[in-house]
Specification:
The protein has about 600 residues and is of the alpha+beta class. It contains 24 helices and 20 strands. The strands form six sheets. Strands 1-8-3-6 form a four-stranded antiparallel β-sheet. Strands 2-7-4-5 form a four-stranded antiparallel β-sheet. The chain has a four-stranded mixed β-sheet with strand order 17-16-15-18. A hairpin with a 5-residue loop joins strand 13 and strand 14. Helix 17 packs across helix 18, helix 19 packs antiparallel against helix 21 and helix 22 runs antiparallel to helix 23.
Length: about 600
């Protein structure tokens, strides 16, 4: 039995129990017990069963896994004294997680779940949208494993077979691919490869198929993974096929985009093919409006939020590419191969959520005249408008390829880059550098643009690096203060402005300081981890914080879409769950601590030492 005065004091200092009256706190404390656990003990698995207890940590650390499909040994969140777990599943009546494991010796105050639910919920019904709640514990996951999409035996070729013989076997089996058994794994021959390298290329039909596939490694997934994992590879790499292998390397077969179209269990995922094949702008817009529904379905089915965001990025890329193709088909006088379209901002980094703007830039072949670029920009404006009508908005006064500032020849981009490096305080140099370093080609020749190379020599300009650091620190991580409340300022917490953008800005600058070309925020943080600018513990803490905040943000926005509300980043901290409120509070503290350290770095340290 818990020592009641100590337990009351613990509960009174712990949200959401701090809202209870004195009698209720005393009653709850009497029903609790103080328990101790050793390192590695599973304290709660609320994915497989409803919790019987809610736990308050009194001493030690607890690792939480909050995604049912998590395949990593690293917890999504580490909780410490004063934190609570098991509350969400208790109040919702759904087995929505988390999995909690002791990270070293732990002392807990264990409270009966039924009593906690009675005191906190009372007569107020707890309504949890399906997107958040996930499937009941007794249900099977809504996603299928990739093995279920493999419907035929693969054609397997020896490396010494002639290309012509392998092609005949592919035709006889009605397969668009053949796997080639190599010493170090598998190669793949596809119809596309035969057309491009044999029929229209310089490879003869008598060539050994092993020579044809040398140097090319096919994408593959392991048997037992979710179908969505294969889908992500197909979309992200724009691959024709993904091989499915056992853990020992044995080939099971392959999947292609049409396998998702014909599978009833993955029908929502077929949206990618529908977008890619849309015959008109109007059809593309109609299909694109269904993107949030697919994301909600994947998340509700248990797919990790980071993977859902990856699928979202691929769907956005496909929509933009197809919109460019359809709009330029209306303007045959303009060559659609004369430019490369780049995704900027969150989409360029592969981190877009439903509220994200579709920022863009264009890089032209140097032979394109200034007058022609003006004509192209008018067509780019049609592309931007077409995407906006599909729900993929852009700020027409911001970063879009329809504006002169973001549509230039490669020579002009290089010249502008030199000006920004020489005088970043003029001509919006710091802002433009930050935008373009996130650029990712998604249409046209990916080798054409000089945009992303304009800051290649940035580390050689210490003054510019110091200014960029100051710009990165301009947006501070913060929670609303009591003064904000008393003065009547707008309520709520902006996940993007007050937490995520500070991390994005820090990660971008840290990656530049160590010469990394990574685009995703978490990859940038890992690239800079252990450097002078970002010690490894702080980098890994920011990785964890960013991923968890993105998860909260995605769920919040998909709930808004379900309710017919425009997705946004402002959340009411008094309305979110106790664990989410705890996560957000801790996130702000972690980010602010890194920002304070970098404040000192920007003032006193030599920029030349930052890359060490």
């Amino acid at each position: 039995m818990a020592v009641v005065p100590e337990a009351v004091a613990t509960l009174a200092a712990t949200p959401p129990f701090d809202r209870l009256g004195e009698d209720e706190l005393t009653d709850l404390a009497r029903s609790g017990r103080v328990v101790e656990h050793e390192d590695g003990e599973v304290l709660l698995d609320a994915f497989t069963a409803m919790p019987r207890h809610v736990h308050v940590i009194r001493a030690g650390k607890v690792g939480l896994w909050v995604e049912p499909e998590s395949a990593t040994d690293v917890p999504d969140l580490v909780l410490g004294p004063g934190d609570v777990f098991g509350l969400d599943a208790t109040l919702t009546g759904r087995a929505i997680g988390p999995l909690a494991v002791a990270l070293g010796p732990v002392t807990l105050l264990r409270l009966p779940a039924a009593r906690v639910s009675e005191l906190l919920a009372g007569d107020r019904p707890v309504v949890v949208p399906e997107v958040l709640a996930g499937p009941p514990a007794t249900d099977s996951p809504a996603y299928v494993v990739v093995d279920e999409l493999v419907v035929s035996r693969p054609v397997v070729a020896a490396p010494g077979e002639r290309v012509v013989d392998v092609a005949r076997r592919m035709t006889a089996a009605d397969h668009g691919y053949a796997a080639v058994e190599l010493d170090g794994g598998w190669g793949i021959v596809t119809d596309r490869m035969l057309r491009e390298r044999v029929l229209a290329g310089d490879v003869t039909a008598e060539t050994a198929v092993g020579d044809l596939v040398t140097g090319e490694t096919p994408d593959q997934v392991v048997s037992g993974e979710s179908a969505a994992a294969a889908l992500i590879l197909l979309l992200d790499r724009r691959a024709d096929y993904v091989l499915v292998v056992d853990r020992d390397g044995t080939l099971r077969g392959a999947v292609e985009p049409r396998d998702f179209v014909v599978s009833s269990t993955t029908a929502g995922v077929s949206l990618h093919e529908q977008l890619r094949r849309a015959a008109s702008v109007e059809e593309l817009q109609e299909r694109a409006r269904g993107i949030p529904g697919v994301l909600a379905s994947l998340l509700d089915g248990g797919l990790a939020s980071t993977k859902v965001i990856t699928v979202h990025t691929a769907l956005l890329d496909t929509t933009v590419r197809r919109m460019v193709e359809l709009v330029f088909a209306r303007h045959p006088a303009l060559d659609p191969d004369a430019f490369t379209w780049l995704a900027l901002g969150s989409n360029g980094r592969g981190e877009a959520v439903p509220s994200s703007d579709i920022d863009s830039a264009a890089a032209f072949d140097d032979r394109v005249s200034a007058d022609d670029i003006v004509r192209y920009r008018h067509v780019f404006a049609e592309v931007v408008d077409g995407l906006a009508a599909a729900g993929l908005t852009s700020d027409r006064h911001g970063a879009t390829a329809a504006r002169p500032l973001f549509a230039r020849t490669n020579a002009a981009w290089r010249a502008a880059g030199r000006q920004w490096l020489a005088a970043p305080a003029r001509n919006n140099g710091a802002m433009m550098t930050s935008l373009l370093v996130d650029g990712r080609p998604i249409y046209g020749d990916p080798g054409l643009p000089a945009v992303t190379g304009v800051v290649a020599g940035l580390r050689g300009h210490p003054g510019t690096m110091r200014l960029l650091l100051q710009e990165s620190l301009a947006r501070r991580a913060r929670l609303r203060s009591l003064r904000d409340v008393l003065s009547g300022r707008r309520t709520g917490f902006d996940l993007k402005d007050h937490a995520l953008l500070p991390i994005v800005n820090l990660a971008r600058w840290a990656a530049l300081s160590v010469g990394s070309s990574a685009l995703p925020t978490t990859e940038r943080l890992r690239a800079a981890a252990g450097s002078t600018v970002l010690p490894a513990p702080q980098a890994l803490a920011l990785v964890e914080v960013f991923e968890v905040l993105q998860r909260i943000r995605l769920r919040h926005q998909l709930r808004q879409v379900e309710q017919g509300v425009a997705p946004g980043d402002r959340v009411d901290l008094t309305a979110v769950s106790a664990i989410d409120r705890s996560i957000i509070t801790r996130a702000v503290r972690e980010i602010a601590a890194v920002q304070r350290r970098l404040d000192n770095l920007s003032l006193y340290d030599d920029p030349e030492s930052w890359s060490r």
